[in-house]
Amino acid sequence: MRRKSERGANLLEMAIVTPVLLLLLAGVVDLGRAFYSYVVIANAAREGARIASRLPCYPEITQRTALRNEIINATLQEAANSGVQLYPGNVIIEPDPLSACAGRGEPISVTVSFQYRTWMASITGIGDFVLSSTTRMIKFGNDQM
User: Fold this and answer.
1) Is 103 helix (H, G, I), strand (E, B) or coil?
2) Over the stretch 15-27, which tens digit does the pLDDT of each residue have?
């Protein structure tokens, strides 16, 4: 039998433990969202590098601009299909088709950066942080003309 002084102890313990467990659960969900976003931007960088490695780079600036736009659009579309909103400023292409073309057998890389906003920022003090992924592929197919 319980004493009168022990009544309600379970309720008090539950009241103390429940917020901690809910905070942990929310943190795990937030971490899962961050991992999902990282996988999405890694796939977007891979798609941009795939396009960049296959399309030819011509000497005319209008065609180089079209090539750069095609790489960026493919990258943005891949991320948008998975629910992550990127902008053209999030994509960096090296070498940039506007300044230099990668020749056959040379590497070309696409870097995607994304400012991830946590749900738990106000509670934990961990604010936004940058997720970044770079994919490098070898240029093949048509050389620059």
Assistant:
1) coil
2) 999 999 998 898 8
First to last CA, the chain: 91
Cα atoms found within 13 Å of the Cα of residue 24, Cβ hemisphere only: 5
Residue 127 lies in a domain: yes
Enumerate the H helices of 1-145 as residue ranges. 9-54, 61-81, 121-124
Query: Per the confidence metrics, is the pTM higher than 0.70?
Result: yes
Cβ-count burial 36-71 (b if 16+ within 10 Å, e if not): ebbebbbbbbbbbbbbbbebebbeeeeebeebbeeb
Domain span holding position 114: 4-138
Give the CA angle between residues 98, 134, 67 to the nearest 5°. 25
Report residue 84 as tokens. Answer: 């992550």
Overall number of domains in the chain: 1
